[in-house]
Amino acid sequence: MATDHTAFLPPPVVSAGPLAWMRRNLFTDWRQTALTLIVLYAVIRGVPPLLGWLFVDATWQGTRDDCVANGGACWAFVSARWGQFIYGFYPADERWRVNVTFAMLALSVVPLVLPMVRGKGWIIGFLLTLYPVLAFCLLYGGVFGLPVVETARWGGFMLTLVVAITGIVGSLPIGILLALGRRSNMPAIRTFCTLFIELFRAVPLITVLFMASVMLPLFLPTGFSLDKLLRALIGVAVFNGALMAEVVRGGLQAIPKGQYEAATAAGMGYWRMMGFVILPQALRLVIPGLVNTWVAIIKDTTLVLIIGLFDLLGIVQAGVADANWLSASVTKTGYVFAAMGFWILCFSLSRYSMYLERRLGLGASR
Amino acid sequence: MTAPVLPPRQIFWTRRRVKSLVVQAVFLGGLAWLFYFLFANTTANLQRQGIASGFGFLSQRAGFDVSLSFLPFTSDSSYGRAFWVAVVNALVLSALGIVLATVLGFGLGLARVSKNWLIARLATVYIEIFRNIPLLLQLFFWYFAILRQLPGPKESLVLADLVILNNRGLYMPRPQVDQSGWVIMVCFAAGLCMALVMTLRARQQRLKTGHGPKCWFWWPIGLFALPLTAYVLSGASLSFVIPELRGFNYRGGMLMLPEMLAALLGLGFYISAAIGEIVRSGIQGVDRGQVEAASALGLGRRDIMRLVVLPQAMRIIIPPLATQYLSLAKNTSLAAAIAFPEIISIVAGTTLTQTGQALEAITLAMLFYMSVSLSIAAVMNFLNYRVLRHGN
Fold this sequence. Notes:
The complex is a heterodimer.
Chain A: H1 17-25, H2 30-56, H3 64-70, H4 75-87, H5 95-113, H6 120-140, H7 156-182, H8 187-202, H9 205-219, H10 228-254, H11 257-265, H12 270-285, H13 287-300, H14 312-320, H15 328-365
Chain B: H1 15-49, H2 79-112, H3 117-131, H4 135-146, E1 157-159, E2 163-166, E3 169-172, E4 174-177, H5 181-209, H6 218-234, E5 238-241, E6 244-246, E7 249-251, E8 254-256, H7 258-285, H8 288-296, H9 301-331, H10 343-355, H11 358-390
Antiparallel strand pairs in B: 1-2, 2-3, 3-8, 4-5, 6-7
Helix pairs in contact in B: 2-3, 2-7, 2-10, 3-7, 4-7, 5-6, 7-9, 8-9, 9-11, 10-11
């Protein structure tokens, strides 16, 4: 016996439009509604004062007294110190050299992000080999008739970039060699590389920087001294090399055995096989992992301030301690400014890594 | 009659093996030469600069004070004692940080997959902010920009007359029990054991028969009812020492120094963002069919999460979680920059400057971090093994 169920159906509830969306996503049941209301209250209480501090009550020009009177963020401090924050103690007449270095970097990075540009390999090759050399010649000087600028005068955002790029560029070859060594057939080399990697992975970067700054001079022959910045850079590169080795090893392990066998059958020796067959595939696989390690390297550059170098954070910290500006609002503004700088760098890089992951994933499944 | 086919003669000294041996010999020789070179330089340098070597300095008088110490320590104590003070401080900070980061991180991970749009968005914003700013910068922010800028004791921020926050730190009531207080502690421990045993028994029975007795009520009984009964019956007096403003400062109660608080907030917030992402990807890594099947069995959303999704997600979560715990323990070293007395500030800082024995000081610091890393790795490997093998 057939029953007409349709007669008993309730009228349809709203299933489209903003009201339905809110019911679905904010007010599903009484528990969700309560949560939403509590969180909404907190947001309404928290966000306007924050925006007020950042913009409305902020001081854009003036001195410390203006900032203290207005009670908001003290952007006047940032604009007064802008030159130092970007260039450190680099002589004002020579700052164009830093600008050229920045511009070269920006010009090579932009095409990397655009999907339609071809020949990205060449750009990456340039960034990893020629660019650091050129940048060093420009920044340090002593060639092409450029006056020498001692590394003690380097600082600010420029030093952060120098440490980050050296860390990124230097750690890659170290990491590749260590990863190959760890997977080598030769027990002596395998043991050494494993110990080396595990040792550096088990200790924090600070101890390695301390090692580079106070132990390294003891290890070197008497009378032979290395620049303070150079010592820190060696520490950063070696430490991150050990981290990079594990990322690269992940890629090496993912390459099917057939690739090794085919390369051997084609009569290739070890270096030829690795350089032309295995590594190009393995590195491609771990690009997202590499970019994530780069984000970590950028965040870790701040540690060099502990051994007395003035990177962006170090110079901000020195600036907020200046007697002419000393106040609560300047201190907060300084750190918020530095945080914004690092956040933009790291966030965009990590988004880029996610984008690559999606794209490479698509490519693999096609 | 044909001759038996012999396998081709295995030559031990193939070209390949010889080459490999030569390469390794050269490598080891180079390494030995490098070590000898460094060793010779170091001894020459140490002699020239008149620096003593060896760990003899550990028994000498340290002559400095430490702002936070869980062991008795005065400036007359030895460098060795200072090292142990630093070890305990670093371990306490790591343990508190791990608890804070785990609780926050799991909350964030669950919020990220929440159906509530607002909560999911807020969790995303939190995670993206805290994981993309260097930890050292966050520590500086909490310490120099927030906690050190708080008003002095007279204008403290006071919560219900019990919790007091000012530029000297965070004051909390300190529980105090008299002589018979141990009875309560024993009852508490016994209650905890009881609840654990009952839960384990119930689970075993459930695994065997499919029906287990209800056991949740053992927890409130063991943890609250039993100690409370003991407290009433034994007539022990439990009181709280509440911090009071006397003169220019608060006295009594528990004090958490601003250095400690800033280090804890910085480490906890930073690592919790990473853990939140790990938990999210773990939950999303559980096969969708599992949720649908549980839903078809009539389980509610909360039960699906608690009984079906999370236990399976834990298998994905635990290995990267271990990495984050390791990273937190190693990152306690950054607290040295805000004057928290841990290994780097005491050993690689004060001790190194006073004795000049860089080699020994850095080696001690590295040994500490290596043993912490190895222990955490061992514990998490064990946990991972349990989860993989026995499920939840």
